Every structure is written in structure tokens, then in C-alpha cells.
Amino acid sequence: MIDEFDDALALANGPQPTAPRDPAPAAPAPRPAPPVQAAHIAPDWDTARATAHRAVRPLAPRRLPLDLALGHTLAAPLTALTDLPAFDTSAMDGWAVAGPGPWRLADDGPGALAGRPAARPLTDGEAVPIATGARVPEGATAVLRAERGTSAGRRLTGPNPQPGADIRPRGQECRTGTELLPARTPLTPVTLGLAAAAGYDQLPVRPRPRAEVLILGDELLFRGLPHDGRIRDALGPMTGPWLTALGAQVMVTRRLGDDAEALYEAMSTTRADLLVTTGSTAAGPMDHLRAVLDRLGARLLISGVAVRPGHPMLLAELPDGRPLVGLPGNPLAAVSGLLTLAQPLLRALGDRPAPAEAEAALTDAVRGHPRDTRLVPVAAPEPGLVRPLSYAGPAMLRGIAAASALAVIPPGGAEAGAPVRLLDLPDA
User: Fold this and answer.
1) Looking at the structure, do residues 188 and 96 belong to the same domain, yes or no?
2) Tell me: the pLDDT tens digits for 86-123?
3) Taking the C-alpha atoms of 139, 144, 150 and 156 in order, what is their torsion angle to the nearest 10 degrees?
4) Residues 333, 279: one domain?
5) What are the Pro residues biased-composition ranges (predicted)?
């Protein structure tokens, strides 16, 4: 469905290419609405996001090996299973020395090497070659760096290092039982490295929620140029990767056209934790989504949101409790639905903390809807400032493709210099 108000605002914010529209068809005769289409008052944008977050519980925890845990969320605090480091280690290549120099080299062997048992204990005046990461022998008081010492035969000379110099003492980073990361921490490459160093082979995690995407609409083409009234599908290539960036594991993207039976079958048999549909959220003659939801016995939690673009978005609970997000068919309106409903749902399912909110000041005034929040693509010309972008109509992606964020414009609009909230956009 094309939102005329949104298109008018997009034109007001910058030059836009337009195309003539076909005359609106005559309204069909009123008919009784099925239960899932019962009248709802569209919640405001913040309320809709909060409702979506409360609609589900976190997924049950499971244990995964470290090489499969990337992108999941810790289900319990990460506590150290060992001291870090587990023993005194050398921070540099050089010599482990005992007391002040000059020193006599303890033996003619390779010395203390990383991954080998400790060299024999040292007595005052002795030294032994040592490699970075090697266990410091008992009795050593410091490490003399290789570039500062000179050895000749069995004799080592150089400046006396301070006691403890270039030695990483046992437990310097943490002691056994120390909490290193709290529960709900997303697992990144760095946190997985920390877990491995702390002694873990597996981790208790909240798994990435599994998502399935259903692309609806007979008017969509999946290759080639638009022709004969049909248009290219922009949502299929975009929705799955966007859900992945929001924390989902996308199982499949399926193209169903306007086949109500195929939609019913897909919704009845899904194994996903979150089902996402694109298009068919309005009440056109080929919009079957609400009728299929009613046939399934789904419960409608949100039927429209007071936000532009994207106000026809919906949130439903399937009979088995799984959530379904219905995205509008216009591309930027669908992005609005992803950030309004899918993002908080995925955060709740994965038990992830809410991201810190960012703000910036507008370089230019932005017209607002009299009652609804607007989400407007913006670019950041310098830190603390954002500039509204053109090509921001509900059917357009050109503006958001060049954007660094979406600005949350309150009802009534915002003047130049006014601070606005920002929604980050995925960059990978």
C-alpha cells in the first residue's frame, strides 16, 4: 500500500522522482471482519517496540563448543576456571635472572621455552635464556630483555632490571572464580578468545533465534527488469541479511506469491522461532495474511503502529506461541517494521541487552506527521550532527542506502538544531 502522506513528506524533504498513479479503485462493500481483523488502536512507536519485546521469552539455553558459539549470547556469567596467567610467564625474549648482575648462565641448553616445563630453579647470580610466554623458573627475580644484555661464554652482563620486570605474575589478569563477563553478553571473537584462555571448551548460550522469511506478492519479479506491471523484489535480498544483522539465524527465504494455501501451509509447519512475512498486511483484494492468521487461530497483538513509513505492520502470536511479524510490502516501510517489531523480538528471544541510545542534532528542520512518529534516513556530516536525506518515501531505498542512521522524528516534526534519537543501521 502506498502512503500518500509519507510520499508528500518525502517530496518536501528533497527532490524526488515521481510516477503517475492509477486511479484508486472503488471501495468494496463493507463486510464483517474476521476475529483477527478486529479493530485495534494503533499503538505509538515506543509502545509497539515495548509490546514486541514483552511478547516472547528468551529461548532455552544450550551448550555449544567455542567454534560454534559466535553470535550467540551468554546464558550464565563467564567465570575463570584457572588463574590468568596460570603461572609466572615471561613478557619478553631475553634471560630470566636471579638477583643483581653480572650473571652466570646456568647451562648451555636452549633455556626456558614456551610450552615446555619450567627450567630448573635459579640461585642468586644465575641466569637462563627465556622466550616470551615461557614459564619463569623458580628463584628468578626479573627478565632482562634480549636487546639489553650481552652474553659471552657462560657470562651475562647488562643493566640490573627492577624486581619483577617483564614478568607476568600468576593471576595478574584474574584468579580462578573471577567473573569475567556477565550473562547476556553477546559472544564476539574477542569474548570467545577470553573464554578459551579462561579454560572453557563449551559455553552455555542463548542460541540465535531461527527466522524464516516469506515473501508475498504475485507482482514481484526475482530477476531481470520490471515489465508488464511487475516489479523487482527488493525485500527478498534485504530481509534475511537484515535479520541476520539483528541477531537471527535465517533458515530460509521462501517466495510464495499471493497463494493463500501456500501461506497457510508455511505458517502451519514452520520450525522457526520467528516468522517474518513481507507484504499483504493491508486489506487489498490479494492481501491474504490476516485471513490466514484468522484461519490458523492466531492472536493479533499489534495491528498497525503510529509510525511513518510502515504503519500497516503487524505482530501476531501463532497458536503454538511463536511470533509472526508482518512487514509492509514497500521497502522502506518494511525496514521500519524490522526496527520497530523484529529487532525487539529478536533481542528478547536471544536475551540481549538493549543497545545504548544515541542522539544528534538536526542540521535542517524535518516536517512531521500530526499524530505519528516518523523514521527518516539521515547522514552524519560531523559528530553530533545529522542531515536528513532525500528519497525517503515508503517505497524508496535510495535514501537509506546512503544513510548512517534513522532519525526518530516525533509527531509534529522537529526544528533545525533539535536533538533526535537515532537508530543504528547494520553495516554487515
Assistant:
1) no
2) 999 999 999 999 999 999 998 766 778 887 887 889 99
3) -10
4) yes
5) 17-35
Total domains present in the chain = 4
| Residue 189: other Cβ atoms inside 10 A | 8
Longest dimension (CA), the chain: 104
Task: Write down the residue that cell numbers 621455552 correspond to.
Answer: 113
Q: pTM higher than 0.85, yes or no?
A: no
196 and 255 co-located in one domain: no
Could you read off the pLDDT of 151-186 as tens digits, one per residue? Answer: 988 899 999 999 999 999 999 999 999 999 999 999
Q: Give DSSP secondary structure letters for 138-176.
A: TT--EEEEGGG-EEETTEEE-PPPPTTTTEE-TTSSB-T
Which element (helix H / strand E) includes 5?
Answer: helix 4-12
Show the domain range for 162: 89-168
For residue 327, what is the enclosing H or E element?
strand 323-327
**Residue entry with cell 538493549:** 354
Task: Give yes or no: residues 332 and 255 share one domain.
Answer: yes
The gap between the terminal CA atoms of the chain, to the nearest Å, is: 29
List the one residue out of 251, 231, 255 whose CA is nearest residue 397: 231
**Alpha carbon of 27 to those of 31, 41, 133, 283, 352: distances in Å?**
11, 22, 77, 11, 45
Residue 287 and residue 326 in contact, taking contact as beta carbons nearer than 8 Å: no
175 lies in some domain: no
